[in-house]
UniProtKB/TrEMBL annotation:
It comes from Drosophila erecta. GO terms for molecular function: structural constituent of cuticle. This is Larval cuticle protein 9. InterPro entries: CHIT_BIND_RR_consensus, Insect_cuticle. Pfam families: Chitin_bind_4. Keywords: Cuticle, Signal. Residues 1-16 form the signal peptide.
Length: 92
């Protein structure tokens, strides 16, 4: 569940002081898996999918992208599992 906390913090930072129109918002939540995606008019977007493995361990992968204050687009691709959160910043 730590990945949800990290993602929530990232979303708060992304949406802070920003008014944006929702261009895409899809979600599918099941007992053993989930996926969602959103895209905003301010060039913020995210996708995430997860699968419940044995003993309540989630394996999650996703990415998010936003425009930094300096105008550069930042894209982060990540996985999260029982060993932790593993982000990688890639060129967008």
């Amino acid at each position: 569940m730590k990945f949800a906390i990290v993602l929530a913090c990232l979303l708060v930072v992304t949406f802070a002081n920003e008014e944006a129109e929702v261009l895409k918002n899809v979600a599918e939540i099941n007992v053993l898996d989930f996926k969602y995606a959103y895209e905003l008019s301010n060039h913020n977007r995210a996708e995430q999918a997860g699968v419940l493995k044995e003993h309540d361990n989630w394996v999650v992968s996703g990415e998010y992208e936003y425009v930094a204050p300096n105008g550069q687009t930042v894209k982060v691709v990540y996985t999260a599992d029982e060993t932790g959160y593993h982000p990688k910043v890639v060129e967008a």
